[in-house]
Amino acid sequence: MTENFRIKDYLGDRELYRQMLKIAIPISLKSLITVGINLMDTIMLSEMGDAQLSASSLAGQFITLFQICCMGIGMGANVLTSRFWGMKEHTSLKKTITIMLRFLLVFATAFTVVTIAAPEWIMSIYAPDDAEIIAYGATYLRWLVPTYYCMGLSLTCTIVLRSVGQVKIPLACSIFAFFVNVFFNWVFIFGNLGAPRMEIAGAALGTLIARVFELLFICGYFFFIDRRITYRLRDLTMRCHDLTREYFRVSVPVLISDALLALGNNAIAMVMGRIGQAFVAANSVTTVVQQLSSVLTQGISNASCIITGHTMGEGDYKKAQRQGYTFLFLGLVIGCVAALIILVLRTPIVNYYEVSPEAKTIAFELMDAITVIIIFQAMNSILTKGVLRAGGDTKFLMVGDILFLWVASIPLGYVAGLVLHWPPFWIYTMLKIDQIIKCIWCYFRLRSGKWLKKIKPAEQSA
User: Fold this and answer.
1) What does the domain layout of the chain look like in residue ranges?
2) Do residues 76 and 392 make contact, with C-beta atoms less than 8 angstroms apart?
């Protein structure tokens, strides 16, 4: 391989960028709208004080745990649906969706039962010594009980639509949901238009109304209107035994990986909850900035997963390898841009929030750490959530997520925050050290070519 050829591999070609932007821009815009919703929620609740803001943030961690599990279920299916779409295996595509939806309903039921039965216990995991946060958080969770089915169905159906190039419908849904959420938050948090002043319960109710809207919009289109996949409610009863083994071989490691990642993030939230309200409030402020600066990374990650899946479905593995290098290079560029965005936005955003002076001081230190971490996070996200996952290398990624998060980030963050009482900059750096390690780990995996796995359609997998 000559040097010129290697440079070309890293830069990619015009057609790749065209495909990538066609998929990534709508997904990034959808992510940006989601960040806008979170931003408005945080700004509105910050006026109620650190306790309610912290409670919604910590209770939201449990909701996020379910959301990441849904993404694991959906993205696990996405590895297969994008590949089958490239192979033009329509029957296998529908069977994958059926297994995914059945799997999802089991998870949604489990989370619903736990939330109904023990909201205070859930909150005590995050803030065991703060009765005020536990009480507020339990109220927040009770209002959001129905959201598991709404969020799960709309999210997984959205992922499937994206895998076949349908990205505009989810974007339109998010635009409308943004206004629905913000409007009803404004009404119920503050008691406007004659509504009762509900404060944190109003934030939960506004979110629930938006989730119901998303369910009706996305699932209404998916099950009754879509003409590309043509999946209908009656397909939920179709026989899928000939694809079940292949589905679980590819998808379960994705679910385990994302679930353990979610549990790890919850463990990190537990560490923060034990440090104090000011640290949790500061992290709530920085979380929105992190999300804002990483929306393009999410779009590129999803695009790289879909494009790589289609390319491998067509049987061109060498092209998929070259595209992998291009996406990695883009991750480096986007990470640096994200770091600059954080440096520019951190002061006006932190100062805008109605949080305590202590929380603001901590928030600035966390911003400094995020500026460094986000560069590595952008590169490894595009590989772990995109290229390598689409290649079917899900077991390898599962091992990496388990190893680095649970062996490095969580214990180091615990020691730094609760034993050594280091400054917030170093506590956060230790809590996110897995992002740096995974970036290096996945780069060498990409170079090896061992991530390119074959997937069998339904007729061959029995």
Assistant:
1) 3-460
2) no
